[in-house]
Design goal:
This protein has nine helices and no strands. It is mostly helical. It folds into two domains: 54 residues, no CATH class; 159 residues. It is found in: Cytoplasm. GO terms for molecular function: metal ion binding.
Length: 234
């Protein structure tokens, strides 16, 4: 029996089978902010065959070891998930965003006149950087401590505080997802122009990795951490 059907939600599939994110990414299917769509709905949105998508997913599942590098988030405490996000994804952003900034400024100054998309890349990256850093501060200084408080003292009052700003955080995620989509669009899926220098190559490669890490980051928050809290509060 095949493990996945067209009625499974995209986010839930990635939660139980993380490698599914590779297939969704290659088909431009949003598995983080759009994780509540079924595979059928997501495929229709991208005008691709849901049946072919399911065939790909189930074939990859059978070929893979689904337990390799798999984290069963259902067994993890809220505090464990919060610490994982901070130590893995937040730390990466705090290091990568300032380090990438001068390289983007450099290719704008050197190549901006010839390759006009670079100006848009610079503007979008600055928007992304501002949005993400403000988002990290809100999570680390306000919302995550409230979630950890609920983990220590699970009462209705602490749960109410733990979910107090999750709607806003999900809206932040949507904004970030839109910027990432626009970056991919203006770079023509990070296709380098002819004769691109090494700095140009470096920027596109690191932007693509930034996208990949951020989508995984949002997926864990939206479809695992926040969803569990909302379900308890409902």
């Amino acid at each position: 029996m095949s493990p996945f059907t067209i009625d499974n939600k995209v986010g839930e599939v990635v939660t139980v089978f993380p490698k599914a994110s590779d297939i969704f990414k290659s088909n431009r299917i949003d598995f983080c902010c759009g994780g509540n769509l079924t595979i059928k709905e997501a495929a229709a949105k991208q005008m691709i065959s849901a049946e072919q998508l399911i065939t790909q997913l189930n074939m990859l599942y059978r070929q893979s070891n689904p337990n390799k590098d798999y984290i069963n988030w259902k067994e993890k405490s809220f505090s464990h998930i919060v610490h994982y996000i901070e130590e893995t994804h937040h730390q990466y952003l705090k290091e990568e965003l300032p380090q990438l900034t001068p390289y983007i400024t450099k290719i704008y100054k050197v190549h901006g006149n010839k390759h006009h998309q670079v100006e848009k890349v610079k503007t979008l990256f600055q928007q992304l950087k501002t949005e993400l850093l403000e988002h990290l501060m809100l999570e680390e200084n306000t919302q995550f401590p409230l979630i950890e408080e609920y983990d220590r003292h699970p009462t209705h009052e602490t749960l109410e505080r733990a979910v107090s700003q999750l709607d806003r955080l999900e809206k932040d995620h949507q904004n970030v997802g839109n910027i990432l989509k626009e970056l991919r669009k203006v770079t023509n899926n990070y296709h380098l122009p002819e004769g691109a220098c090494r700095t140009f190559q470096l920027v596109y490669k690191r932007l693509e990795h930034l996208e990949e890490d951020t989508l995984s980051h949002i997926h864990i928050e939206n479809n695992i951490l926040f969803k569990r809290l909302f379900n308890l509060y409902a």
